[in-house]
Structure formats: structure tokens, C-alpha cells
Amino acid sequence: MAMTRTLHPGHSHRHLKRAVSILGVVLFVGVLALVLRTLSAGGSFAEVRPGYMGRCTPAASLAVRDIVVDAKTGLAFLAVAGQKPAVEDGIYLADPAHPKAPPQRLAGVPQGFRPTALSLWRDRSGSLVLFAASPGHVSGSVDIFSVHLGAHPQLMETADIGSSLFAHVRALAALDGSRFYAVDAPHVAGDFFSLLGSYLTPAKGRIIFYDGQMPHIVAKGLRAPRGLALAADRSRLYVGLAVSHVLASYKIESFLGHLTLADRYALPLAPGALTVDGAHALLIAGDPKLFDRARFEHDPSHPSPSAVIRVELSDGLPHGVSQIYANLGHPIAAAGVAAEAGGHLLIGSALASRLISCTPS
Q1: CATH architecture for residues 51-360
Q2: Domain positions in the chain
Q3: What is the pLDDT of residues 282-292, one digit of tens each?
Q4: Edge-to-edge, what's the strand order for the sheet holding 259-266?
Q5: Could you give the CA distance from residue 128 to residue 227 in angstroms, rounded to a whole number?
Q6: Which pTM was predicted?
Q7: CA 333 to chain centre
Q8: What are 234-274's pLDDT values in tens digits?
């Protein structure tokens, strides 16, 4: 005969209490891990060791957002756009070999164009092509210019590519004279609650490929991408992810522009712009402490540290990182881009509206 077991009410109550306790512990551990992750992303545990083997001098008081260098001439092109529209906004040309000469604003840029990202391409004939992005509230544009150097350098616009996919362009990388990649991502503030919120909401950063006719999304779900660079042989694309302090490497399918994630490499800072340094390295300027950057953005009396690192590449993949410059906020705070040209290191900051030129000893 089957026996029927009668559960005592107290037995069920103990099981429920135990389940609630376990759930509470799991939630506590999860929240603690999320808080620690946010504090780490903000730089609470980062140690900044200032240093540079050389001498740095002010070069310009401009809100420099990006720098690209023409390898043939050694000239540097600057994307200048402040936090708010200003008469100084535009594309400038600087000669790193003469750091005391002020950068020259180039004619030929459309009125109201506020460049946030640049990329250069030289074709086989030697002609120089400049790509420049100007975001907007709903739609942005990437303009293509032919560059005319000489006694009176100027730009001539050859294409104006407008799209809602370019509303928040952070970086550009030209694949050739008509095709390019762009990073598009809404701004993520560096304060604690903004960083915490970025982990609790879907990542909205994406990579756009323009194939010469139409823009296409080729990667999405990236958390706060801020930098972009192509390998010298155009076989890989590198993306800096600010919140996670990561350099992501993608393999490129050259014809269609499709991307395949190949590697994720941890960085000691929140990366800003990426620039190619020869065939086997990248220069990355960024923020060791995002919390300090957020505070500096609202109160310039609290400088934000700056750092520049070099990431060595082997077979296209990152395999080593070294710091080449760092400070505690002086002479340049919240640096967002660095590039080497003519034996000089140029470092720019849009928040601090400053460009400095550093010469190694």
C-alpha cells in the first residue's frame, strides 16, 4: 500500500527562508561585483606614474579631437571642435618640425562643419585624400576632401556623405580613396552612475563600413568605442573600447568589408584615439582615470591625468604595451589623441583646448 507523506508547514517555511537567503547572497555578490567593475572602469584603482623622456612645450590653444600625419610630408592634420560650436572649429595643418609655428586653418571646409575624426589616404598617383566626420543630433556626415599643399594649403570637398548612421561618429579609418570605416557611438560620461548605467543597458556602439555607395553596420554591441585604426597592410581593424579598457582586433574581409573579431587585449587606460606608429605599433592616448575626466569636464580646476601608451603588434595582434608619456593633468589634461611625426610627439585634448609638442631627449 502506498504511503502518503504529509509535509509539516514549518518544513516548507524553512525551505522558503533558505531560498530567499541564497537569493539575497547571490544578489549581494552580483551588485558588489558590478560596483567594483564600475570603480575599476572609472580608474579608482589606477596608479598614474608621471614621466616622459624629453621636453614638452605648448603648441596651440585649440580643442584638438584628432590628429593624422601624412607619412610622405610629415605634416599633421588636426580636427578642432570644442564642446560647443565656436569660430575656431575646423581642420588645421601643423608642421611638427616647426612646433613654434601656429597651426594653419585650412580653407575649403563647409560652414558649420565641426570635425571630430580624420583619416588620410594617398593614392598611387600621390594625391592626398582627407576624410573628416561631423556628427549631428539626428544625422551626421563624412566629407571627403582632396588636399592641395604648397604655399597656400587648402581643401577641396569632393563628397558629402550624410546618414543617420553617422550621428555620433567618434573615429574614422580610410580603407582606400572612397571606402572607410567609422565608429558611431553615443557619448558615455565618465561619472560613476553613467558608467554603472552603461553596464545595465545594451551597448549601443557600432562600426559602420561605407563601401563607396552605401553605409552598412558591420559590428554592433560595442561599449563606448572611441578610437579606430587600420593595420599598415589593411588586413586588420583596431577599436579602442573606453569603458572596458580594451583594444579589440578584427580581421577584415577586404571586398565586402565584413569584420571578424580576432582578439581582445587589456589596456591600462580608457583609450581615446588610435594612431598607427609604423608597421608594428599603435599609439593610444587616453584616460587613466575616467572619474577625474568627468569631474574636469564640469570643473576645470580639477585637472584630469593624461597618458600615452605604445602597443606593439605581432602578426597583427597586440602583444606588449609600454607607457611613453603620463602626467597628473599638467601641462595637458584629459588628452584624447597622440601622434608621432618628424621626431616629435603631438598630444591633443579637446576638453582642455590644448596641443603640446614633445621632443624626446
Answers
A1: 6 Propeller (2.120)
A2: 51-360
A3: 999 999 998 88
A4: 225-230, 236-241, 246-252, 259-266
A5: 22
A6: 0.89
A7: 16
A8: 899 999 999 999 999 999 987 788 999 999 999 999 999 99
